Amino acid sequence: MSISSKFEASTVEQKWYDYWLENKYFASTPDDRPAYSIVIPPPNVTGILHMGHMLNVSLQDILIRRARMQGFNACWVPGTDHASIATEAKVVARLKEQGIDKNDLSREEFLKHAWEWTDEYGGHILNQLQKLGASCDWDRTKFTLDDDMSESVIQVFVDLFNKGLIYRGYRMVNWDPEAQTTLSDEEVIFEEKPGFLYHIAYEVEGVDEPIIIATTRPETIFGDTAICIHPEDERYSHLKGKKAKVPIANRWIPIIEDDYVDTEFGTGCLKVTPAHDMNDKNLGDKHNLEVIDIFNADATLNAHGLHYESQDRFIVRKAISKELDDLGVLLKKEEHAHNVGTSERTKAVIEPRLSDQWFLKMEQLAEPAIKAVLESEEVALVPAKFKNTYRHWMENIRDWNISRQLWWGQQIPAYYYGNQSDDFVVETSPEKALELAKTKSGNPDLKLSDLKQDNDVLDTWFSSWLWPISVFDGIRNPENEEVNYYYPTKDLVTGPDILFFWVARMIISGYEYRKERPFSKVYLTGLVRDKQGRKMSKQLGNSPDALKLIEDFGADAVRVGLMLSSAAGNDLLFDESLCQQGKNFSNKIWNAYRLIEGWEVDESRAFSVVNKEALHWYSQKFQQSLELINDHFEKYRISDALMTSYKLIWDDFCSWLLEAIKPAYGDPIDGQTYREVRALFEENLKLLHPFMPFLTEELWQDMEIRSKEEALIVSKWPEVQEFEVDQIRHFDETKAIIGGIRNFRKEKELGFKETLSLQVIGSSDRIPFESLVQKMGQLTEISYVEVAPDQTGGSFRANNLEFFIPLEGKIDLEKERLKLEEELKYANGFLMSVQKKLSNERFVSNAPEQVLANERKKEADALEKIEVIKKSLSSL
């Protein structure tokens, strides 16, 4: 045996990861094997490893390692996402620290800084995934801004535009004033926040009484272009057709009527700001109202804000509240909680804004994706409960705003050549655009310098929705060998928070560009929460350092800790004690191997009945567990698969098999037992390898079984053989008997060096695994008698059988009698309390059946225990 006395994860992890890389065990090229491909949900290029990544990547690695062992050509494609908003924000912040304003740079100069940032930080998270053991084909690493990936995105944009699915429109959009870009509806998080409802009086022409409106945003009065009342609201019928004066701005605006107004909200009067509210914009279009945009891109007020120009909207809200109060037109300010849209990326409060943007029509595109998940189930969501969420999003889908006012990303391939709104062409390159522009404009003298490309970039999700296709170059070269071999991919592991952002859109693009699903199963993980149930976040300071966990416990232990509590779709309550549990399991396996390898082998020693039966039992138990583990994997119950493996190794192998075959202290073990237990240990390592790759490879290599298969990572996953259920059941009965003997020793305060004999009462059938019971119970003999002998001793029951152990001369009889009498008194008291509950008609008639069943079992167990105690007392 060459391994150390203690398992040190840090000494083996890098060694075996380098070994796997050197031997290209992660690499994949098309061949005659069936493919099993998965694509990593690309983390942000500027990101760092966090608990969500750890959970997600561990699950993917478990699936891909098992597939590799099953004989599939396993291909796991890694990569990162350029994350337009997040990355540009970080680059802008860094430039600011250097005293550089983005607005002072050209696009090319800014992109140079962005690429420098990406080159410096871009590979960090992928390197961190390697620490966790991720067996990705790193030669395939993709970045959403790679040249080939960008070409694919641009090609798709042009194709969808030519199909009439992409259009440019002046629409109300969600504006992030911090990132200074538009967001899609799905990138806006609505949160209920405390605020105020301001009741403001507007002067009405020719009327003594003002009209009162209630608003949560008094700063927007500079954009008011009407006040709206309900046509059937008699309170305001006398105001129809009149005008009102906007306070401070002192502009006269019409009072209009529309049944859109909710007469129950506020005062029943609505101030209309068409430039800053979607519903107001609809009213404005309907009534031909003026549109006044009062905000700059950073949500400061523009010249329309008069003396508030250049001030932030929230500062203005407080200041204008005071000014309105000073003017005597702020009649009331009351607390009011309301939903506020915030940017998912920057957390800034969203500002509705009218803007020219690019949109993708989604309704037609979504139809195959709806059918694939909700009807044919070609794509299965695991767990299926998320189908309802998917249905809600997809059946209420809106056109996708795909343009972003940023520089970091794929620049929209629209080229303008004139002054009219439709004086543009869309093409994959400036040269092609020029030829098209010449034709469209009828001007053959146009030059490249006459074209101006659209400043906006595409939404990052417009890159990643092509991910399963574009990583295999399936957009540019749709018939290439790789995409035809690896696509569709097999499984997708991701979080439910991007079910619509990413998953649904990938399904849409899959059917649009490959006419088939992009993957067959979507395993949706839960959120990683702390033990108090709070979502882990930097702000709360409750998210552990992922790399520090690996350093402290080892990658295998962290993976086990995560998997033990991570059922699909359910949030994981993470506690570092789970990693300690994983580390304890690693040590258990390590020490089991050291025990086996520490035995001296004597080939002349006989293969005992005990060892033969115990080894045969474990081989059957292994097959039963393997069948269950495979079933768990098929149903994507990954944590259940680990728990079944955990119990098999810890309980059945370590606690029972090794104890059963262990030779007496100082004695050697026979060669047959040694070889068989090593072979079974080898099979255990195969089961554990997907979960604990480093530990298992270390032990596998130490066992010097490379003549069979060159490395555990590419060894063959065990195949289920027929197994004897009766053997397993009989061994479970044997465990109960041995457990009874051990408990008896403990109760009677008899050490394990004290030899005992066992009598089976009233049964002529021999108990199963008799030799094993004798060895592990440390018995001198086992005999079978009709009735318990009239001698000092004690009884216990197991498997509906009664057992008697003679104790003559082995215990203090008076002490034992007092102890049994105390136990009998307690048992009788417990029985009375249970029977009293069961005799209560009200309880029996109202209690659930399961509760009644539990109480009746308590009664039966108490009666049996009382009988055993009485027999033991009578034998003293």
Protein model, in words:
With 876 residues, this protein is α/β, with parallel strands linked by helices. Among the domains are: 181-351, Isoleucyl-tRNA Synthetase, domain 2 (Alpha-Beta Complex); 546-723, Orthogonal Bundle (Isoleucyl-tRNA Synthetase, Domain 1), CATH 1.10.730; 729-874, Valyl-tRNA synthetase, C-terminal domain (Helix Hairpins), CATH 1.10.287. Strands 7, 8, 9, 10, 11, 12 and 13 form a seven-stranded mixed β-sheet that branches. A four-stranded antiparallel β-sheet has the order 6-5-14-16.
Task: Give the gist of this structure.
The protein is an alpha/beta fold and 876 residues long.
CATH class of one domain: Mainly Alpha
Q: Pairing-aware structural class of the strands and helices? A: alpha/beta
Corresponding CATH architecture of one domain = Orthogonal Bundle
DSSP summary: helix tally: 27
Q: Tell me the CATH topology of one domain.
A: Isoleucyl-tRNA Synthetase, Domain 1
Report on the biggest sheet. 7 strands, mixed
Mean pLDDT: 91
Fraction in helix: 40-55%
Strand content: 15-25%
CA gyration radius, whole angstroms: 37 Å
Termini separation:
52 Å
